[in-house]
Amino acid sequence: MASLWEYANPLKFMRTTDWLLPVVSVAALVVTSIGLIWGFFFTPDDFRQGSTVKIVFLHVPAAMMAINAWVMMLVASLVWLIRRHHVSALAAKAAAPIGLTMTLIGLITGAVWGQPMWGTWWAWDPRLTSFLILLLFYLGYLALWSAIEDPDTGADLTAVLCLVGSVFALLSRYAAIFWNQGLHQGASLSLAPGTRMDWAYKAPLYTCMLGFGLIFVALVLAGTRTEIRARRMKALVARERMA
Asked: Is 140 helix (H, G, I), strand (E, B) or coil?
């Protein structure tokens, strides 16, 4: 555990990600490409939904990462509040626009998928509504960072907002279990008994999920490095002004 906290040091983090970021980026590109090509071009049409169901290879990984990004922000925010490690606060900040993008992809692809299945682009379904609220929390989180000049104060307030928004991240994940009513189907992938999806779809879907996870890691690493450099630049400018 002690060695893990070494990476809270910006210098150590930058040195490690110098070689780690290219590796993760290439892996993300390769795995995601394989998953999407496999899913969209080499899987059969569903006997009920036809080719429309193939949007699952974008929708499910994006929705999964939208929620997991907020969970990652929650963990990083807690580390900041408890240990006051700046890298964790900057990592949470870097993850927010990625989570926002994944949430938008999830909502848009869900609407495209839902229109032919439900006959409407939108329904006030529990999961859809909680996911929309999660999008608003992402927007609020980014707006709060932009509105506060002092970085430590911004990290404190956004960490508190992240704690509150975690309720809706949880609801987005489990709304279909909490409420039986609603148009949204249950979980496509589950450890519960019973076949929900054939392996012809499961295998490429798992590959896409891994690819999206690697994309998230690569973008967070790149974003955190950018935030560290921006903070260093501000510190240098402040010193020159004082001199």
From this structure: helix
- Answer for the pair 87, 9: CB distance below 8 angstroms, yes or no: yes
> Of 18, 64, 58, whose CA–CA distance to 172 is shortest?
64
Distance of CA 167 to the CA centre of its chain: 16
Which residues in 110-147 are b (16+ Cβ under 10 Å) and which e? bbebbeeeeeeeeeebbbbbbbebbbebbeebbebbee
pTM: 0.87
What percent of the chain has pLDDT above 90?
53
Domain-by-domain residue ranges, the chain? 21-125+198-242
Name the 3-class secondary structure at 138. Answer: helix
List, for residues 14-40, the tens digit of each pLDDT value: 999 999 999 999 999 999 999 999 999
Q: Output the six-digit token pair for 91.
A: 């990592």
